[in-house]
Amino acid sequence: MLQQTTVVAVVPYFERFMTRFPTVQQLAEAEESEVLKQWEGLGYYSRARNIHKAAQIVSSQLGGIFPSDVAGLQELPGIGRYTAGAIVSFAYDKRAPIVEANTLRLYARLLGYDGDPRSKEGQQVLWSFAEAVLPKTQPGRFNQALMELGASLCSPKLPDCEQCPVSGFCRAFRDQTQLEIPQLAKRAVITDVTEASIAVRRNNAYLLRRRTTGERWAGLWDFVRFELAAATTDDVPHIVESVHQRTGLKIDLGPQLAELKHGVTRYRITLKCFVADSVAGTLRDGEEWQWVKAAKFDDFALSVTGRKFAKLLAESLF
DNA sequence: AAGACGGGGCC
DNA sequence: GGCCCAGTCTT
Fold first, then answer.
1. Which of A54, A75, A202, A274 is a plausible cystine mate for A278, CB 3.0–4.6 Å?
2. Are residues A294 and A196 in the same domain?
3. What are A275-298's pLDDT values in tens digits?
4. Any idea which nucleotide's C1' is nearest the CA of A4?
Protein backbone atom coordinates (compact mmCIF):
# COMPACT_ATOMS: atom_id res chain seq x y z
CA MET A 1 0.00 0.00 0.00
CA LEU A 2 2.83 2.35 0.78
CA GLN A 3 4.39 2.06 -2.68
CA GLN A 4 4.29 5.62 -4.05
CA THR A 5 1.60 6.51 -1.53
CA THR A 6 1.85 8.65 1.57
CA VAL A 7 1.53 7.10 5.02
CA VAL A 8 -1.38 9.42 5.83
CA ALA A 9 -3.33 8.19 2.83
CA VAL A 10 -2.60 4.55 3.61
CA VAL A 11 -3.42 4.30 7.32
CA PRO A 12 -7.23 4.00 7.11
CA TYR A 13 -6.96 1.57 4.20
CA PHE A 14 -4.44 -0.50 6.11
CA GLU A 15 -6.67 -0.67 9.18
CA ARG A 16 -9.69 -1.79 7.19
CA PHE A 17 -7.70 -4.19 5.07
CA MET A 18 -6.16 -5.91 8.06
CA THR A 19 -9.54 -6.17 9.76
CA ARG A 20 -11.08 -7.72 6.66
CA PHE A 21 -8.10 -9.98 5.85
CA PRO A 22 -6.33 -10.72 9.14
CA THR A 23 -4.32 -13.65 7.78
CA VAL A 24 -2.57 -14.45 4.54
CA GLN A 25 -4.92 -17.43 4.13
CA GLN A 26 -8.01 -15.27 4.37
CA LEU A 27 -6.61 -12.87 1.82
CA ALA A 28 -5.72 -15.78 -0.46
CA GLU A 29 -9.24 -17.21 -0.24
CA ALA A 30 -10.99 -13.91 -0.93
CA GLU A 31 -12.45 -13.01 -4.31
CA GLU A 32 -10.39 -10.50 -6.25
CA SER A 33 -13.45 -8.26 -6.47
CA GLU A 34 -13.56 -8.12 -2.68
CA VAL A 35 -9.86 -7.20 -2.50
CA LEU A 36 -10.40 -4.46 -5.07
CA LYS A 37 -13.40 -3.22 -3.10
CA GLN A 38 -11.16 -2.78 -0.05
CA TRP A 39 -8.62 -1.00 -2.23
CA GLU A 40 -11.19 1.29 -3.86
CA GLY A 41 -9.91 4.89 -3.90
CA LEU A 42 -6.30 4.10 -3.02
CA GLY A 43 -5.10 3.91 -6.61
CA TYR A 44 -2.48 1.77 -8.35
CA TYR A 45 -4.88 -1.16 -8.36
CA SER A 46 -2.31 -3.58 -9.71
CA ARG A 47 -0.95 -3.54 -6.17
CA ALA A 48 -4.22 -5.01 -4.95
CA ARG A 49 -4.17 -7.75 -7.57
CA ASN A 50 -0.51 -8.41 -6.82
CA ILE A 51 -0.88 -8.71 -3.06
CA HIS A 52 -3.82 -11.02 -3.62
CA LYS A 53 -1.80 -13.23 -5.97
CA ALA A 54 1.17 -13.11 -3.62
CA ALA A 55 -1.03 -14.26 -0.75
CA GLN A 56 -2.25 -17.17 -2.87
CA ILE A 57 1.32 -18.18 -3.68
CA VAL A 58 2.45 -17.92 -0.07
CA SER A 59 -0.61 -19.79 1.12
CA SER A 60 -0.67 -22.58 -1.42
CA GLN A 61 2.94 -23.00 -2.50
CA LEU A 62 5.00 -21.82 0.46
CA GLY A 63 3.02 -23.35 3.30
CA GLY A 64 1.82 -20.00 4.54
CA ILE A 65 5.37 -18.87 5.36
CA PHE A 66 6.82 -15.75 3.76
CA PRO A 67 10.29 -16.02 2.24
CA SER A 68 12.86 -14.45 4.53
CA ASP A 69 15.42 -13.59 1.88
CA VAL A 70 15.45 -10.81 -0.70
CA ALA A 71 15.61 -13.10 -3.74
CA GLY A 72 12.71 -15.24 -2.56
CA LEU A 73 10.55 -12.25 -1.75
CA GLN A 74 11.23 -10.66 -5.13
CA GLU A 75 9.71 -13.71 -6.77
CA LEU A 76 6.34 -12.60 -5.44
CA PRO A 77 4.27 -10.27 -7.62
CA GLY A 78 4.43 -6.64 -6.53
CA ILE A 79 7.54 -7.11 -4.41
CA GLY A 80 10.58 -5.45 -5.93
CA ARG A 81 14.01 -4.68 -4.57
CA TYR A 82 12.90 -2.08 -2.08
CA THR A 83 9.93 -3.95 -0.62
CA ALA A 84 11.96 -7.14 -0.37
CA GLY A 85 14.72 -5.27 1.48
CA ALA A 86 12.20 -3.61 3.74
CA ILE A 87 10.56 -6.90 4.71
CA VAL A 88 13.87 -8.65 5.28
CA SER A 89 15.33 -5.88 7.39
CA PHE A 90 12.22 -4.74 9.26
CA ALA A 91 10.47 -8.05 9.82
CA TYR A 92 13.44 -10.40 10.18
CA ASP A 93 16.07 -7.84 11.22
CA LYS A 94 18.46 -9.22 8.65
CA ARG A 95 20.98 -7.13 6.72
CA ALA A 96 19.34 -5.92 3.52
CA PRO A 97 19.72 -2.46 1.99
CA ILE A 98 16.80 -0.29 0.99
CA VAL A 99 16.41 2.69 -1.30
CA GLU A 100 13.04 4.39 -1.57
CA ALA A 101 11.88 7.99 -1.86
CA ASN A 102 13.22 9.11 1.53
CA THR A 103 16.53 7.28 1.60
CA LEU A 104 17.05 8.04 -2.07
CA ARG A 105 16.92 11.75 -1.27
CA LEU A 106 19.04 11.40 1.87
CA TYR A 107 21.72 9.25 0.21
CA ALA A 108 21.86 11.35 -2.94
CA ARG A 109 22.42 14.44 -0.81
CA LEU A 110 24.95 12.82 1.48
CA LEU A 111 26.91 11.73 -1.59
CA GLY A 112 26.34 14.96 -3.48
CA TYR A 113 25.16 12.77 -6.36
CA ASP A 114 23.82 15.20 -8.94
CA GLY A 115 22.98 12.71 -11.70
CA ASP A 116 19.56 11.19 -12.24
CA PRO A 117 19.10 8.93 -9.21
CA ARG A 118 16.66 6.72 -11.10
CA SER A 119 19.05 6.02 -13.97
CA LYS A 120 20.98 2.77 -14.02
CA GLU A 121 24.10 4.52 -12.78
CA GLY A 122 22.21 6.39 -10.08
CA GLN A 123 20.59 3.20 -8.83
CA GLN A 124 23.97 1.48 -8.75
CA VAL A 125 25.49 4.35 -6.76
CA LEU A 126 22.65 4.59 -4.27
CA TRP A 127 22.14 0.87 -3.66
CA SER A 128 25.89 0.44 -3.18
CA PHE A 129 25.86 3.20 -0.63
CA ALA A 130 22.82 1.73 1.10
CA GLU A 131 24.65 -1.58 1.35
CA ALA A 132 27.88 0.04 2.52
CA VAL A 133 26.36 2.04 5.37
CA LEU A 134 24.24 -0.83 6.68
CA PRO A 135 25.43 -1.89 10.16
CA LYS A 136 25.68 -5.48 11.34
CA THR A 137 23.50 -4.83 14.36
CA GLN A 138 19.87 -3.79 14.13
CA PRO A 139 19.85 -3.19 10.38
CA GLY A 140 16.04 -2.95 10.45
CA ARG A 141 16.05 -0.13 12.95
CA PHE A 142 18.88 1.52 11.05
CA ASN A 143 16.95 1.45 7.77
CA GLN A 144 13.81 2.78 9.39
CA ALA A 145 15.75 5.52 11.17
CA LEU A 146 17.29 6.71 7.91
CA MET A 147 13.93 6.63 6.17
CA GLU A 148 12.54 8.74 8.98
CA LEU A 149 15.47 11.15 8.71
CA GLY A 150 14.83 11.43 4.97
CA ALA A 151 11.13 11.98 5.54
CA SER A 152 11.50 14.57 8.29
CA LEU A 153 14.63 16.73 8.35
CA CYS A 154 15.86 15.87 4.86
CA SER A 155 12.64 16.93 3.17
CA PRO A 156 12.41 17.78 -0.54
CA LYS A 157 11.72 21.51 -0.37
CA LEU A 158 12.80 22.67 3.08
CA PRO A 159 15.55 20.48 4.52
CA ASP A 160 16.43 21.41 8.10
CA CYS A 161 20.18 20.92 7.80
CA GLU A 162 20.87 22.83 11.04
CA GLN A 163 19.14 20.10 13.01
CA CYS A 164 20.46 17.24 10.93
CA PRO A 165 22.74 14.82 12.81
CA VAL A 166 24.68 13.92 9.67
CA SER A 167 25.10 17.32 8.04
CA GLY A 168 28.79 17.06 8.94
CA PHE A 169 29.11 14.21 6.41
CA CYS A 170 26.79 15.70 3.81
CA ARG A 171 28.37 16.85 0.57
CA ALA A 172 25.19 18.59 -0.54
CA PHE A 173 25.21 20.61 2.71
CA ARG A 174 28.88 21.38 2.29
CA ASP A 175 28.23 22.56 -1.26
CA GLN A 176 24.84 24.09 -0.45
CA THR A 177 23.20 22.06 -3.21
CA GLN A 178 20.48 20.49 -1.07
CA LEU A 179 17.72 21.90 -3.25
CA GLU A 180 19.28 20.73 -6.52
CA ILE A 181 19.64 17.17 -5.26
CA PRO A 182 18.14 14.75 -6.01
CA GLN A 183 17.80 15.73 -9.65
CA LEU A 184 14.54 13.95 -10.44
CA ALA A 185 13.26 13.80 -14.00
CA LYS A 186 10.29 16.01 -14.73
CA ARG A 187 6.86 14.47 -14.76
CA ALA A 188 5.23 13.93 -18.12
CA VAL A 189 3.17 16.79 -19.44
CA ILE A 190 -0.53 16.78 -18.60
CA THR A 191 -3.03 16.41 -21.41
CA ASP A 192 -6.61 17.62 -21.15
CA VAL A 193 -9.26 15.17 -22.26
CA THR A 194 -13.04 15.25 -22.19
CA GLU A 195 -15.02 12.12 -21.52
CA ALA A 196 -18.67 11.22 -21.26
CA SER A 197 -20.03 8.92 -18.59
CA ILE A 198 -23.58 7.72 -19.10
CA ALA A 199 -25.65 6.03 -16.44
CA VAL A 200 -27.93 3.97 -18.66
CA ARG A 201 -31.12 3.08 -16.77
CA ARG A 202 -33.52 0.21 -17.27
CA ASN A 203 -36.07 -1.12 -14.80
CA ASN A 204 -34.74 1.15 -12.11
CA ALA A 205 -31.23 -0.25 -12.41
CA TYR A 206 -28.12 1.22 -13.98
CA LEU A 207 -25.63 -0.33 -16.34
CA LEU A 208 -22.13 -0.93 -15.04
CA ARG A 209 -19.18 -2.34 -16.95
CA ARG A 210 -16.19 -4.01 -15.42
CA ARG A 211 -13.05 -2.44 -16.83
CA THR A 212 -10.76 -4.96 -18.42
CA THR A 213 -7.08 -5.77 -18.24
CA GLY A 214 -5.09 -3.24 -20.19
CA GLU A 215 -7.44 -0.41 -19.36
CA ARG A 216 -6.93 2.11 -16.63
CA TRP A 217 -8.78 1.05 -13.45
CA ALA A 218 -8.67 -2.55 -14.62
CA GLY A 219 -11.01 -4.69 -12.55
CA LEU A 220 -13.04 -1.74 -11.28
CA TRP A 221 -16.58 -1.03 -12.37
CA ASP A 222 -17.71 2.10 -14.15
CA PHE A 223 -20.66 3.53 -15.97
CA VAL A 224 -20.55 3.46 -19.75
CA ARG A 225 -17.73 5.78 -20.54
CA PHE A 226 -15.66 6.98 -23.47
CA GLU A 227 -13.57 9.86 -24.67
CA LEU A 228 -15.16 12.71 -26.60
CA ALA A 229 -13.33 14.40 -29.43
CA ALA A 230 -13.15 18.16 -28.96
CA ALA A 231 -15.69 18.75 -31.72
CA THR A 232 -18.25 16.38 -30.25
CA THR A 233 -18.37 17.32 -26.57
CA ASP A 234 -21.86 18.79 -26.86
CA ASP A 235 -23.03 16.66 -29.75
CA VAL A 236 -25.97 14.70 -28.32
CA PRO A 237 -26.53 12.45 -31.37
CA HIS A 238 -22.86 11.53 -31.30
CA ILE A 239 -23.10 10.46 -27.67
CA VAL A 240 -26.23 8.45 -28.36
CA GLU A 241 -24.51 6.72 -31.26
CA SER A 242 -21.38 6.04 -29.22
CA VAL A 243 -23.42 4.42 -26.47
CA HIS A 244 -25.13 2.27 -29.07
CA GLN A 245 -21.82 1.14 -30.55
CA ARG A 246 -20.40 0.49 -27.14
CA THR A 247 -23.32 -1.33 -25.56
CA GLY A 248 -25.70 -2.35 -28.32
CA LEU A 249 -28.44 -0.37 -26.61
CA LYS A 250 -30.56 2.42 -28.02
CA ILE A 251 -30.92 5.17 -25.47
CA ASP A 252 -32.97 8.22 -24.75
CA LEU A 253 -30.33 10.63 -23.47
CA GLY A 254 -31.32 12.85 -20.55
CA PRO A 255 -29.76 16.16 -19.57
CA GLN A 256 -26.19 16.43 -18.33
CA LEU A 257 -26.33 15.81 -14.59
CA ALA A 258 -22.86 16.96 -13.60
CA GLU A 259 -19.36 17.71 -14.79
CA LEU A 260 -16.52 16.22 -12.78
CA LYS A 261 -12.86 17.13 -13.01
CA HIS A 262 -10.31 14.50 -12.24
CA GLY A 263 -6.55 14.23 -12.65
CA VAL A 264 -5.17 10.79 -13.39
CA THR A 265 -1.67 9.82 -14.44
CA ARG A 266 -0.84 12.25 -17.24
CA TYR A 267 -4.40 13.31 -18.02
CA ARG A 268 -6.72 15.91 -16.67
CA ILE A 269 -10.18 14.57 -17.35
CA THR A 270 -13.32 16.61 -17.66
CA LEU A 271 -16.11 14.10 -17.24
CA LYS A 272 -19.57 14.96 -18.49
CA CYS A 273 -22.09 12.82 -16.63
CA PHE A 274 -25.43 11.93 -18.18
CA VAL A 275 -28.41 9.78 -17.34
CA ALA A 276 -30.15 7.92 -20.12
CA ASP A 277 -33.00 5.46 -20.48
CA SER A 278 -32.43 2.30 -22.38
CA VAL A 279 -35.35 1.98 -24.76
CA ALA A 280 -34.32 -0.84 -27.09
CA GLY A 281 -31.53 -3.16 -28.16
CA THR A 282 -29.63 -5.98 -26.51
CA LEU A 283 -26.40 -5.80 -24.61
CA ARG A 284 -23.20 -6.46 -26.52
CA ASP A 285 -21.33 -9.69 -25.87
CA GLY A 286 -17.72 -9.85 -24.84
CA GLU A 287 -17.95 -7.30 -22.07
CA GLU A 288 -18.77 -7.77 -18.42
CA TRP A 289 -22.01 -5.87 -17.81
CA GLN A 290 -24.31 -5.69 -14.84
CA TRP A 291 -27.57 -3.89 -14.12
CA VAL A 292 -27.32 -2.48 -10.61
CA LYS A 293 -29.84 -0.66 -8.45
CA ALA A 294 -28.58 2.55 -6.85
CA ALA A 295 -28.86 1.03 -3.39
CA LYS A 296 -26.35 -1.65 -4.44
CA PHE A 297 -23.61 0.62 -5.80
CA ASP A 298 -21.69 0.12 -2.58
CA ASP A 299 -21.19 -3.54 -3.40
CA PHE A 300 -19.02 -2.65 -6.38
CA ALA A 301 -15.50 -1.30 -6.51
CA LEU A 302 -15.89 1.77 -8.69
CA SER A 303 -13.40 4.22 -10.09
CA VAL A 304 -13.24 7.43 -8.07
CA THR A 305 -15.22 9.36 -10.66
CA GLY A 306 -17.64 6.48 -11.00
CA ARG A 307 -18.11 6.59 -7.25
CA LYS A 308 -18.75 10.35 -7.29
CA PHE A 309 -21.22 9.97 -10.12
CA ALA A 310 -22.97 7.13 -8.30
CA LYS A 311 -23.32 9.33 -5.23
CA LEU A 312 -24.84 12.15 -7.26
CA LEU A 313 -27.19 9.67 -8.85
CA ALA A 314 -28.33 8.28 -5.51
CA GLU A 315 -28.92 11.79 -4.19
CA SER A 316 -30.81 12.90 -7.28
CA LEU A 317 -33.30 10.11 -6.75
CA PHE A 318 -34.79 12.02 -3.84
C1' DA B 1 15.39 3.73 -20.98
C1' DA B 2 10.81 5.28 -20.94
C1' DG B 3 5.92 4.84 -19.85
C1' DA B 4 1.99 3.36 -17.32
C1' DC B 5 -0.17 3.19 -13.31
C1' DG B 6 -3.94 6.96 -8.97
C1' DG B 7 -5.14 9.81 -5.88
C1' DG B 8 -4.47 13.12 -2.32
C1' DG B 9 -1.80 16.51 0.38
C1' DC B 10 0.80 20.55 0.37
C1' DC B 11 2.43 25.09 -1.05
C1' DG C 1 -1.05 24.19 -10.85
C1' DG C 2 3.04 21.76 -10.00
C1' DC C 3 5.56 18.67 -6.99
C1' DC C 4 5.84 14.65 -4.35
C1' DC C 5 4.71 10.27 -2.13
C1' DA C 6 7.70 3.74 2.16
C1' DG C 7 7.82 1.40 -6.44
C1' DT C 8 6.87 -2.15 -9.72
C1' DC C 9 6.00 -3.93 -14.06
C1' DT C 10 5.69 -3.70 -19.02
C1' DT C 11 7.20 -2.29 -23.40
1. A202
2. yes
3. 999 999 999 999 999 999 999 999
4. C5
